[in-house]
């Protein structure tokens, strides 16, 4: 659904942009020891959970050890993926000048390579958020999520392949990040595609060997339950990531845009598009951490390079700004946003506007 904000004149938009710039500048000036302590604490917790999970799965012939090990490993993978990896790759912690937590050196526990993710996500998605024909994340090239996207008969089954995508989400993202569809369109050379395929094969090989060969072999008699525990942990992480990402981008109320609306777009207008093209998910502090603070998707899209622990603090201010300028601030519980996302998937599976 392409929606405009008729009651907001250009001067109001620029004033909104100036206020958002001030929020960003204040956070940049305040970053310091507390923020560094936060991310190092999360990393330490994640590594402790992963170590505990691996050890428990090494003796997982005992069912309680399997349950505990799988739960710890799944939680560790969610933390590594969402609150650490995604945010480190955005450069949120580059200001610390720590090569161990830097966007140029981090390689995450996910099939797609860091370099491919930074291109398709950081650059393409965050630049062209919800612009039909420019933001490939709007439907990930296989879903129809806007009336401005052309309908094809295959979209009739998009509810079914959405269900199938969730447990193998990392595989879907890895294939999507190859941008194979850009080769016929002339936006990518076959040589570049082959290079990216080689990178994915190498990364996937290391990931599969680690979780489904190395650690099961080290588990000896517990090899099979260890392997199944790793599979369950990866599947849980995939479903969780799929849920959070879809609920932050596709619920009812999240708007899409045409390329024509971007003519001479200013920074303030870019801010406005981020607000209109994102949705938040309400929950506890633990929920926000496990979501990578992408439950504050509006704040993340406004300020993708600010430390994620700051989003909860600035969210009330951003919400008040939206109220001041009579802008929608799409938010709700996980259940509400999940249901709204499914309504959108079902609605646009059918032809028509």
Automatic annotation (TrEMBL):
It holds the Pfam family FA_desaturase. Residues 65-331 form the Fatty acid desaturase domain. This is Fatty acid desaturase family protein. It comes from the Bacteria. InterPro entries: FA_desaturase_dom, Fatty_acid_desaturase. It comes from Streptomyces ochraceiscleroticus. Signal peptide: none annotated.
């Amino acid at each position: 659904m392409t929606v405009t904000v008729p009651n907001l004149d250009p001067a109001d938009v620029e004033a909104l942009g100036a206020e958002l710039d001030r929020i960003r500048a204040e956070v940049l000036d305040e970053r310091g020891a507390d923020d560094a302590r936060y991310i190092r604490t999360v990393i330490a917790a994640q590594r402790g959970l992963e170590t505990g999970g691996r050890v428990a799965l090494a003796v997982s012939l005992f069912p309680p050890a399997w349950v505990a090990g799988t739960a710890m490993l799944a939680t560790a993978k969610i933390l590594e993926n969402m609150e650490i990896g995604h945010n480190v790759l955005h450069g949120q912690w580059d200001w610390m000048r720590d090569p161990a937590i830097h966007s140029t050196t981090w390689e995450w526990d996910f099939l797609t390579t860091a370099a491919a993710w930074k291109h398709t996500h950081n650059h393409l998605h965050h630049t062209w958020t919800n612009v039909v024909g420019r933001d490939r994340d709007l439907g990930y090239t296989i879903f129809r999520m806007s009336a401005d996207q052309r309908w094809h008969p295959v979209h009739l089954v998009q509810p079914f392949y959405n269900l199938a995508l969730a447990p193998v989400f990392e595989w879907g993202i890895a294939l999507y990040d190859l941008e194979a569809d850009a080769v016929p369109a002339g936006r990518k050379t076959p040589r570049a595609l082959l290079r990216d395929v080689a990178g994915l094969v190498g990364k996937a090989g290391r990931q599969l060997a680690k979780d489904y060969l190395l650690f099961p072999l080290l588990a000896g008699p517990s090899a099979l339950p260890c392997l199944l525990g790793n599979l369950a942990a990866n599947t849980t992480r995939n479903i969780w990531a799929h849920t959070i990402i879809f609920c932050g981008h596709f619920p009812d109320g999240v708007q899409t845009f045409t390329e024509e609306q971007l003519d001479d777009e200013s920074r303030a207008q870019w801010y406005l598009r981020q607000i209109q093209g994102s949705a938040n998910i309400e929950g506890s502090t633990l929920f926000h951490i496990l979501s990578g603070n992408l439950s504050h998707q509006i704040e993340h899209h406004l300020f993708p390079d600010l430390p994620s622990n700051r989003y909860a603090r600035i969210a009330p201010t951003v919400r008040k700004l939206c109220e001041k300028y009579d802008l929608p601030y799409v938010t709700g519980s996980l259940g509400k946003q999940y249901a709204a996302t499914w309504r959108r998937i079902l609605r646009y599976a059918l032809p028509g506007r």
